[in-house]
Amino acid sequence: MAKEDSKTSGAKRAAAKTPRKKPPKFLDNKYGVADWKQVEEWLAWRSIEDIECITPDLAGVPRGKMMPSSKFTSQTSLALPSALFRQTISGEYPEETGDFRYDPHDGDLKLMPDLSTLSAVPWESDPTAQVICDLVGADGKEIAYTPRNVLKRVVAAYEKKGWRPVVAPEIEFYLVARNTDPDYQLQPPVGRSGRPIAGGQAYSIAGVNEFDDLIDDIYHFCEAQGLEIDTLIHEEGPSQLEINLRHGDPVQLADQVFLMKRTIREAALKQDMFATFMAKPMQGEAGSAMHIHQSVVDSKTGQNIFSAEDGSETELFRAFIGGMQLYIPKALVMMAPYVNSYRRLTPEMAAPVNTAWGYDNRTTAFRIPTSNAAGRRVENRLPSSDANPYLAIAASLACGYLGMVNGLVPTSPTAETANEGSIDLPRGLLEAVSLMESERGFDDVLGREFTATLAGVKRGEFETFMRVISPWEREFLLLNV
Predict the structure, then answer these.
(1) 171 beta partners
(2) What is the pLDDT of residue 17?
(3) Enclosing domain of residue 95
(4) Could you give the CA distance from residue 405 to residue 207 in angstroms, rounded to a whole number?
(5) Which is it for strands 290-298 and 378-380: parallel, antiparallel or unpaired?
(6) In a domain, 127, yes or no
(7) 36 by DSSP, 3-state: which?
(8) 148: part of which helix (H) or strand (E)?
(9) Which helix (H) or strand (E) segment is 209 a member of?
(10) CA 127 → CA 4, 123, 201, distances in Å?
(11) What is the pTM of this model?
(12) Is the confidence at residue 5, as pLDDT, over 90?
């Protein structure tokens, strides 16, 4: 596809940076493959040579196997070791904690391709496809502690009540200059002007156009995979961008975020820079969030259960907010999973620091955007972009679900600035882990097997972090204590 003339490309983009061409609908058997015969036809039509069978680990990192397409269509049995789901982000295996124990023989878990997720891998030089897989045990049962299955479990809880959750994620990330030495602070990359872009450029079209070639690559890569971008904007931080996705099914949207992160990284590498989803990559700059818009509809009627017939708020709407307020601090480790995540959740840095809610109030944890009755929803502004999308969405929906089934009552909404002063959330990783473990209300909706697994991994990551001596310690302790 030929690139647009640089003089016209900027003018053709609206302030929200909407895509030039609407990509095909994603993860729908009407447009995608539904059975193995269609898989063979799809692969042959595209002359696909290799297949990447991938699944997200607890961190959201793609794990899996690559094989020739002929081997894939023969439905060869694929397996991964169960130990992959107790591995820390640094590649270590912590000692067991909590009340769940793994198979000491590190037994295999079988990869089960979800054929509706089959798509191209557009940045590969050879024709390559990818497919997202679920995991089952030797008995064919789903493995409860794998991220995609955790989210499916939450969605199933809604389905039993006759409800269908709808979500729309927003993903923030930074572009940074290539940096191969972790001792050096990250710096913004140089854009087309030849100068690094400064902070304070929220919604700046000039800021977005600094990276026209990168944005074009992201759009082209997404279109080839069927990923639906709603809008793209420049955020507050230097070279910080945000991509909004269209609302839809929670599992499908988590799949899209999972693939989108990989896509953005690859597009950035093509332009000789890095894209990072760290929650707080630059000291003194805004952190990166993954805001999640949520509503719930009646499975039979399709009506938003947050709105009554006269357009007023329902008790279920209020109870959903009440559940978010009570339970999300206890599930925060699923939305802020690393030590770095808690550097973002600090006062006066455009991030929530408590469980306040309000109407169109961006300083609250739970914002109710302005909308009509059919579009009434709750925006959870606490998750950071470093979170595994399956787990962040699962946690957010689980907390709202518990609020509805328990009839919880929220506090009064606030119109005041709510992200200054005291912090009413877990202040660090270990505190967040302990809160999650102590909440038995998560046992049924998330699964005790999963929460115990996650707790063990996160404690192991914290111990790894504690081995590192930081510049702050060398600066203030070396000669003063």
Answers:
(1) 243, 290
(2) 47
(3) 24-140
(4) 45
(5) antiparallel
(6) yes
(7) helix
(8) helix 147-160
(9) helix 205-209
(10) 25, 9, 38
(11) 0.91
(12) no
194 by Cβ neighbours in 10 Å (0-12 / 13-18 / 19+) ranks as: exposed
Phi, psi of 283 (to 5 degrees): -65, 135
Is 480 inside a domain boundary? Answer: no
**CATH code assigned at 126:** 3.10.20.70
Is residue 456 domain-resident? Answer: no
Lowest mean pLDDT among 38-47, 178-187, 326-335: 178-187
Q: What pLDDT does 323 receive?
A: 98
**pLDDT, tens digit (0-9, with 9 covering 90-100), for 207-216:** 888 999 999 9
d(CA 170, CA 22): 18
- Report yes or no on 439 lying in a domain: no
Dihedral angle computed from the Cα positions of residues 134, 136, 142 and 146, in that order, rounded to the nearest 10 degrees: -60
Q: Find all residues with CB under 8 Å of 160, minimum gap 6, and list them.
A: none
Determine how many CB atoms are found less than 10 A away from the CB of residue 64.
Answer: 21
Confidence tier at 199 by pLDDT (50, 70, 90): confident
The whole-number pLDDT of residue 7 equals: 36
The number of residues in the chain equals 481
Provide the number of structural domains found in the chain: 1
pLDDT > 70? residue 178: yes
pLDDT, position 119: 95
